[in-house]
Amino acid sequence: MERYERIIALHRQLQAAHRPITVARLQDELACSRATVYRDIAFLRDALMAPVVGDGEAGFAYDKAESERFELPGLWLNSEELHALLAAQQLLERSSGGMLSAALAPLQQRVEKLLDAHSGSKHVPMQRVRVIPHRGRSMDEHSFRIVASCVLERRKLAFDYRARSTDEKTRRMVSPQRLTHYRDNWYLDAWDEDREALRSFSIDRMTAARFVEGAARDVADTELDAHLAGSYGIFSGAPKAWATIRFSPKAARWVADEHWHSQQQGRHLADGSYELKVPYSVPRELLMDVLHYGADAEIIEPKSLREQLRSHLQLAISNYEPGT
Fold first, then answer.
1. pTM above 0.90, yes or no
2. Which residues pair with 265 in a beta bridge?
3. Quick check: 170 and 163 in contact, CB under 8 A?
4. Taking Cα atoms as reference points, which of 32, 34, 50, 33 lies closest to residue 42?
5. pLDDT tens, 106-151?
6. Any idea what the Cα angle at residue 262 is, between residues 166 and 175, rounded to 5°?
7. What span, in angstroms and rounded, lies between the C-alpha atoms of 7 and 30?
8. Domain range annotation of the chain
9. How are beta strands 297-301 and 241-247 bridged, if at all?
10. Per-residue model confidence as pLDDT tens digits over 265-274
11. Could you tell me the fold of the domain covering 241-318?
12. How would CATH label the architecture of 141-215?
C-alpha cells in the first residue's frame, strides 16, 4: 500500500472509530510496520493538522469535538484516479457545441464538482493539467448518440459500415455489448446478428445508424473478455501466437514500464536489453507499435512476424531510394 493510500485509510479508520485504535490493529489494517504507523500518525497530526489524540499504549483516535470538521486537505487522488477524472472532464469539454453537449452538461458539472471536492473546495486550475488527444478521428455525434443509447438501453442496432482496411461498405445489424474508448477513438463491441460472431466496429466508420425493434442479445462478460481482450490491441479473437520482441538497453528504460497487454511477460536481459512477450491475433497494430521504436526494437519470434516486419521496412526504404 502506498503512503497516500495509508494516510486515507488511517484517516477513515480514525474518523469512524468510537474508541481509540491500538497500534497493533492499525498495523493489521494498514499492512505496515509499527514504525510506519507512528510515522503516518505524526504526518497526519503535524503536517495535515488532524485532531489526533492518544498514544501508543492506549491507542489513537480523533478528538470528537474536532473530527467532524476535519477533512484531508489537497487533492487526495492517485495518478490513475486523477487521469480518469481529468480525461472525463476534457472529453466532456471537447463535446461542446455538438449534439451531445446539452445532454452531457450536467455530467460535466458533476465531474467538476467532484474535482473541487477533492481539492478542499478550492478552485482547480484545469489549465495546469493537460490531457492531450493523439490522432483522434472525427466522428458523427448523431451516430454516437444512437450507438450509446442502444448499448445502455440494450436495444438492437443497424448501421452502414465502411471497413477501413478494404473500403467495402456493408449493412450490419448487431446486438451492442460495450462501448470502448481506445487511443482517443470510440469503438463498439457487438454481436453481429448476420455473421453470428462478436465483432468490433470503429464508430467513426458508421453511417445511417438507427434503432431496430427487439432487445439486444446479451453475451456473458467472460466470453466478451476472452474474445475481445485476449489478443493485442483493438483486434478481437483468440490469440494465434505470441510475439517475442527485444528492445535495446536505451528503449528498455521506457518499455519496461509500459503496459502492452494484460498477459504480457517481460524480463531484463544481462546486456541491459528488455524482452517482451505478448499474445496477438491480427499483427497489424503490433507491428505499428514495434516500428514506433525503430532500430531499438527487434522481433525475435515468430519467424513469420519477423519476416512481415522486414517486408514493411524494405517497402519503407524503397520510398527513399535515389530517383524515387
1. no
2. 277
3. yes
4. 50
5. 655 666 665 665 555 555 555 666 666 677 788 887 888 899 889 9
6. 50
7. 9
8. 3-67, 79-128, 141-215, 241-318
9. antiparallel
10. 999 999 999 9
11. Alpha-Beta Plaits (3.30.70)
12. Roll (2.30)
Tell which phi-psi region holds residue 237, choosing left (phi > 0), alpha (psi between -120 and 50) or beta. Answer: left
Cell numbers at 286, concatenated = 503490433
CA atoms within 13 A on the CB side of 93: 14
Number of CB atoms found within 10 A of residue 56's CB: 13
CB neighbours of 306 closer than 8 A, spacing ≥ 6? 299, 300
What's the grid cell of residue 88?
A: 472525463
Domain 3-67 falls in which CATH fold? Answer: Arc Repressor Mutant, subunit A (1.10.10)
**Amino acid in position 104:** L
How far apart are the C-alpha atoms of 172 and 203, rounded to whole Å? Answer: 13
